[in-house]
Design brief:
FAD/NAD(P)-binding domain, 19 strands, Fumarate Reductase Iron-sulfur Protein, Chain B, domain 2, about 15% strand
Length: about 650
């Protein structure tokens, strides 16, 4: 069916549905990269209307849009929004029942202008915009409704509040909501909003790569993005520094028990939300500390250990049990957990295996050559005896490479260099981390590829390298580095730390387990339910997606928890309407652009002042480098937020109607 667009859609959408059958792990009727679900007949957002059935009547859908805003999403902070949305709803109800007049259409038009011009935020402004567009594009339908009313249709309406920053956040946190609470100095309310969707605000407020900031409407209008990540930290630190007790109360744990394997971000999130849903949860962790990569892979100058421990303790105090030193495949198997009475198992085992460089001599015991950056950081964070030389070479371009380099400086290395085969523009590391590393004196060797390890008497003496240049794009979309002829050179170094990537250790899985492995070496799950091929066993995090970020792990664990709850409670599981809409919105925006945009510029801003230690002072210890914002700075930054969320509404025709 051809897609018919009305309103302010600023991009061209495909004019066809997905024709081929969906893959086995993607149910029919779910959004994909090629189009929209077959059962959607219309979509409405801040950009206008999208119609799939030519005879679809938008008048009842506009009424439903106003109803949901009035009932759920109007913030109640301006009389225009409160009274205006209510008046619109009463007038539309009268029209749909065939009791209106053409004068009511004039009332709707005037109220639409008032909401559009005078409402406090985009939620109610969008109602005015859409109503005004509806009166323009569907005038005949409104006139027919006035004369004859509108009979009930068989469609169901599914709606979600949305904003560009929310859509980009894997956890779908209500970012405009918690930022506004900070503007009003309501730190507890801000933190409550965050914890509804993500249980580790103090951690993600420090180490999240903040994809939300790249999507921020303020940034897309040419100003500096709202510092969403650091504002999250402000809310968490307020509770921490003032020794406030978190408001969450213990839940009666009367549901079926669930085992969680791994105390990393995915496992902790799964345990937290399962606890909130009433399930006794036991977390089995192979290490002696919680947090997974947060605990052993991120140095304390970025992520202080007391912040991590406090957030873990909050979850333990709610009734989640964590047992340490128990490794899957060594101390127990998946079936053992079912034999012990657990009704479901969640696997959040992460990616803790370093990927080698593949150089000759790498595994020959040369003194000064480490097995990988992940292993190096883990040993240090666990307090094991680790030494580095005077001249360290790190190979890689991600945050792990940066963390290794900055850690070596703090361990006493005189010279540290990062060798990366592409340019700085292609580095996956956070730009802020790269900038901090450069300030601390770390050298970067871009477009450089190591080809051999140089050694003397069993000790590392340097790296043989070759210069690179960028050629055609590879499968990732980045330009492939290719060697430059006759450009070999030697780089002096007495220590080598590879940091080019990591993978999951899935040796515990055998062909008899029923758990399937993808060609990428990850656990295969149903994308919607997070269940593996073995009934009752769910998985998320790096072991499923490959190495991603902490916030991706938290999002996967949260989603899996809700699926596990349904599975052990009702015997089956499927995405909730809210999850269905979140997936729909994310899929549409990935392929076709944002569904909502802000209209009004915010207050002018510049780069907010951050309180960082001087570079010379940083490298002398593992103290936290960045101490965040002052209360005044956080208020100023929060005040710049446009609160640009809208309601996105889908009209869905269920099977058989």
């Amino acid at each position: 069916m051809k897609q018919i667009m009305f309103g302010r859609w600023g991009h061209v959408l495909s004019d066809r549905r997905k024709e081929e059958e969906p893959p086995n792990d993607q149910p029919a009727g779910f959004p994909s990269a090629a189009g929209f679900p077959d059962n959607i007949v219309a979509l409405m957002s801040g950009k206008g209307f999208l119609q799939f059935e030519e005879d679809f009547n938008f008048v009842p859908m506009i009424r439903e849009y106003i109803r949901q805003i009035q009932a759920k999403y109007c913030c109640g902070k301006c009389i225009t929004g409160i009274k205006g949305s209510k008046m619109l709803l009463l007038t539309l109800d009268r029209i749909l029942q065939g009791e209106g007049t053409e004068f009511d259409l004039e009332i709707l038009s005037r109220m639409a202008d008032i909401l559009n011009d005078a409402a406090k935020c985009s939620v109610c402004q969008s109602a005015g915009e859409l109503l005004r567009d509806g009166l323009t594009h569907f005038r005949d339908d409104f006139l027919a409704a006035v004369r004859y009313g509108v009979p009930e249709d068989s469609v169901r309406y599914r709606g979600n509040i949305s904003a560009p920053c929310m859509n980009t956040c894997p956890c779908h946190i209500n970012i405009p909501g918690y930022v506004e609470m900070l503007q009003e100095l309501r730190y507890g309310e801000s933190l409550k909003i965050i914890r509804e969707e993500m249980p580790l605000p103090g951690i993600t407020g420090r180490i999240c790569p903040a994809p939300c900031e790249k999507a921020c409407s303020v940034a897309n209008m040419g100003d500096v993005a709202i510092p969403i990540k650091t504002l999250k930290r402000v809310a968490s630190d307020y509770e921490f520094f003032h020794h406030l007790k978190p408001p969450m109360q213990k839940t009666d744990l009367t549901g079926p028990p669930v085992a969680v394997v791994g105390a990393g971000p995915a496992g902790i999130a799964a345990a937290y939300y399962l606890n909130r849903l009433g399930h006794p949860v036991t977390v089995l962790e192979g290490l002696e500390v919680s947090g997974g990569m947060i605990g052993v892979g991120i140095p304390p100058y970025r992520q202080p250990r007391d912040v991590l421990q406090r957030e873990i303790n909050i979850i333990k105090d709610l009734g989640v049990e964590i047992k340490f030193g128990l490794r899957l495949g060594r101390d127990f198997m998946v079936q053992d957990l079912f034999n012990q009475g657990f009704k479901a198992v969640f696997l959040g085992i992460g990616s803790h295996r370093s990927i080698p460089l593949g150089l000759k001599g790498e595994d020959e015991g040369i003194e000064g050559v480490f097995s990988g950056g992940i292993d190096f950081l883990r040993d240090i964070n666990l307090g094991r005896d680790v030494t580095v030389g005077e001249n360290v070479a790190i190979v890689g371009g991600g945050n792990t490479a940066i963390d290794c380099a900055r850690t070596c400086l703090r361990m006493g290395a005189s010279r540290v260099g990062i060798v990366y085969r592409r340019t700085e523009a292609e580095m996956p590391a956070d730009p802020e981390e790269v900038e901090d590393a450069r300030e601390e004196g770390i050298n970067f060797y871009f477009l450089t590829q190591p080809t051999d390890i140089l050694s003397e008497e069993g000790k590392m003496a340097g790296l043989k390298c070759v210069r690179m240049e960028l050629g055609e794009p590879d499968w990732t979309g980045r330009r492939r580095p290719v060697p430059v002829e006759e450009s070999e050179f030697d780089l002096a170094a007495d220590t080598l730390i590879p940091a080019i990537g990591q993978a999951s250790n899935l040796d515990f899985i055998s062909s008899d387990d029923g758990i399937e492995i993808t060609h990428r070496g990850t656990i295969k799950v149903d994308k919607q339910t997070m269940m593996t091929a073995l009934p009752g066993v769910f998985a998320a995090g790096d072991a499923v997606s490959g190495p991603l970020t902490v916030v991706h792990g938290l999002a996967g664990g949260k989603r899996a928890a809700r699926m596990i709850h349904d599975y052990v409670t009702y015997g089956k599981c499927s995405p909730s309407e809210e999850q269905w809409m979140e997936d729909l919105i994310a899929g549409i925006e990935k392929d076709h652009g944002v569904l909502v945009t802000a209209r009004t510029p915010g207050r002018e801003g510049g780069k907010p002042p951050q309180r960082k230690l001087d570079a010379r002072e940083r490298v002398a210890s593992f103290r936290e480098v960045d101490s965040g914002f002052t209360q005044r700075s956080s208020f100023i930054e929060a005040s710049r937020c446009l609160r640009c969320f809208h309601l996105i509404l889908a009209a869905v025709r269920e099977a058989g109607t």
